[in-house]
Specification:
By secondary structure, this protein is mainly beta. About 0% of the residues lie in helices and about 45% in strands. The radius of gyration is 28 Å and the shape is rod-shaped.
């Protein structure tokens, strides 16, 4: 049998409970909890604790993913987002949410480049915030991007005149 004494009110009445919801906490903040039990005859145990737990961080906002190509990165996606408030960092998964998708970024920056991708392919990015205990907030944001198609190959110019040219290439 578990009992709880309210330390936030004027009353010190014990209540028979086996859980307690504490509200009004701040995000990504570590809290210290203690518990004490008492039986029906009023015999108490010693206080147990402290138990430490960190609340989840705020979710990131406004995800944007843009597919592109460059000599430096090849086919890539530039992925960016805005901080939603109080986070210790971020994790980004490609093509599926956490636990299923491939982790492609973990860090504190709000953008990164995912390179060495395939041409003409659509990628989806799932962005999670993490707290100081390295726990993900399950409320993610996401965006999709498509890399450009491969450039044409074997370009040739035929039938050139004073005002026109005909271009041919392999697709």
């Amino acid at each position: 049998i578990y009992f709880r004494e309210s330390l936030t009110s004027q009353s010190s009445d014990w209540q028979k409970v086996n859980s307690w919801n504490v509200s009004g906490l701040s995000s990504n903040t570590t809290y210290e909890f203690y518990i004490k039990t008492r039986n029906a005859e009023g015999v108490e145990n010693s206080e147990q604790g402290p138990f430490y737990k960190t609340t989840l961080s705020d979710s990131p906002q406004n995800a944007e993913a843009i597919g592109n190509w460059s000599n430096e990165h090849g086919y890539f996606c530039q992925v960016s987002w805005q901080s939603g408030g109080n986070q210790s960092g971020y994790r980004v998964y490609r093509d599926a949410p956490s636990g299923v998708g491939e982790l492609v970024y973990e860090g504190i920056d709000t953008s990164f480049i995912d390179d060495s991708l395939e041409e003409g392919t659509t990628y989806e990015y799932y962005i999670y915030s993490i707290n100081s205990d390295n726990e993900e907030n399950p409320n993610y944001i996401s965006d999709t991007a498509q890399t450009p198609p491969a450039p044409p190959a074997d370009l040739t110019v035929t039938e050139i005149t004073q005002n026109e040219a005909t271009l041919n290439w392999a697709s």
